[in-house]
Write a structure and sequence with these properties.
By secondary structure, the chain is of the alpha/beta class. It is built from 16 helices and 13 strands. The chain has two domains: about 1-180 and about 355-375, Glycogen Phosphorylase B (Rossmann fold, 3-Layer(aba) Sandwich), CATH 3.40.50.2000; about 185-345, Rossmann fold, CATH 3.40.50.2000. It has helices at about 10-25, 50-55, 70-90, 110-115, 135-145, 155-160, 175-185, 190-195, 220-235, 250-260, 270-280, 290-295, 325-340, 340-345, 360-370, 375, and strands spanning about 1-10, 30-35, 60-65, 95-100, 120-125, 150, 170, 205-210, 235-240, 265-270, 285-290, 305, 320-325. It has a seven-stranded parallel beta sheet with strand order 3-2-1-4-5-6-7, with helices on both faces. Strand 2, helix 2 and strand 3 form a beta-alpha-beta unit.
């Protein structure tokens, strides 16, 4: 039986993980052991470790890492604290394979700490590009420190190969987020109203806005422009909290003050995966710069106004309107997204992030990979430059000029 250590850092990522967690837990060839860290252990962000337990899973270990600070110094110290915590954990617990997801700063420490222990790392969602966030650098660093790569799209696979990873290590499996949509029983409008206080039978906006972590000095300006545009729409709105990134508290303070002035605007600290997907399913338009607007929204044929450069480089569908951070252009983009003419173009939209069976692909690969020196001994693979591995995934051109 293979012991799989799965590290989860945040509420958003847990939603991706649940299909994989269920698939591993039901397979007699694996023993799943879950480690919670980062935002999961923070009361400020809803103490979402409880959601793991509510889903029926035991948490093997807690690794405290997140300082109550959103400054660059605080983020850097949190990375260091997490690395120390995982080094201490691995001294007494060593899984056969360590599974990590994505690109957040609190996902990097377990990968760094695993290096001297020679623990094989399986990395999910490598090869993506988000040029407006430090996540880009963290994601690529995690790729080079990892031994198996489960990517979401063909352009992402090509980039991982371009980074010198051997082809046998790289599997395109789609996004686990699409599995989660397929497996989730969504709330109806009545339950949404009871849970979040929003009349989901009427048009409303879903707003998820995070700091652009490579331009944190612009955070105050950016959230002011976004809120000004939303104010002009006069539509009910549901705001979710940003992730625990640099300057996130500035956004939290702004949206709380904005919603305090109008009862038709709601703030949700933590919607949970089922709640968040249900909000996406019933919203008229999504506004913000979350990856969920790029990855999951297409499955709901949900129009999205993607704000600024945070997600620049990700593959996106024709439901996404890319718009700069300007209140007037944002108003135009939201109006366009709400229009019947725009929505009518989305009827045949397919989601490029997969078919909802990523977990099955992942488990098959984890079953058959040989846990030998070959897996641990990384070799740099020379790219055949006759094969096009250049950037194939610039955003859709559906933008407001």
């Amino acid at each position: 039986m293979r012991r799989v250590g799965l590290v989860t850092c945040a509420r958003s990522e847990l939603g991706f993980y649940l299909p994989l967690m269920h698939a591993l837990a039901s397979n007699t060839g694996f023993k799943l052991e879950i480690v919670a860290t980062g935002m999961h252990l923070s009361p400020e962000f809803g103490l979402t470790v409880r959601h793991i337990e509510d889903a029926g899973f035991a948490v093997h270990s807690h690794v405290e890492s997140l300082l109550s600070s959103d400054t660059p110094e605080g983020i850097g110290k949190s990375i260091g604290l997490g690395t120390v915590g995982f080094a201490q954990l691995f001294a007494n617990w060593r899984p056969d394979i360590l599974v990590v997801h994505g690109d957040r700063f609190d996902a990097l420490p377990p990968v760094l700490a695993a290096v001297p222990y020679q623990i094989p790392v399986a990395h999910i969602s490598g090869g993506d590009i988000t040029e407006g966030a430090i996540d880009d650098s963290i994601r690529h660093a995690m790729t080079k420190l990892s031994h198996l790569h489960f990517v979401e799209t063909e352009p992402s696979r090509n980039r991982v190969l371009q980074m010198g990873e051997e082809p046998w290590r790289v599997t395109r499996c789609g996004s686990l987020a699409i599995d989660s949509i397929r497996q989730t029983e969504l709330m109806d409008t009545r339950e949404l109203h009871e849970t979040f206080g929003i009349r989901a039978s009427d048009p409303f906006l879903l707003v998820t806005f995070h700091p652009s972590t490579i331009a944190v000095d612009n955070t105050s300006h950016d959230i002011t422009e976004v809120l000004s545009a939303i104010d002009k729409t006069e539509l009910p709105s549901v705001f979710t909290y940003p992730n625990a990134d640099t300057s996130s508290r500035m956004i939290i303070d702004a949206i709380n003050a904005f919603c305090d002035r109008n009862t038709a605007r709601k703030v949700v600290v933590n919607a949970g995966q089922r709640g968040y997907l249900s909000l996406m399913a019933h919203a008229s338009v999504m506004v913000g710069n979350s990856s969920s607007g790029i990855v999951e929204a297409a499955s709901f044929k949900l129009p999205v106004v993607n704000v600024g450069d945070r997600q620049y480089g990700r593959v996106s569908g024709m439901n996404v309107i890319h718009c700069s951070v300007d209140r007037h252009l944002l108003c135009e983009a939201i109006t366009r997204a709400l229009s019947d003419s725009f929505r009518s173009t989305l009827g045949e939209l397919d989601n490029v992030y997969g078919d909802g069976y990523a977990a099955d692909h992942l488990v098959r690969e984890l079953e058959k990979v040989e846990l030998t020196d070959r897996l641990l001994r990384k070799r740099f693979s020379q790219v055949d430059y006759n094969y096009d591995v250049c950037d194939l995934a610039q955003p859709s051109k559906r933008s407001v000029p």
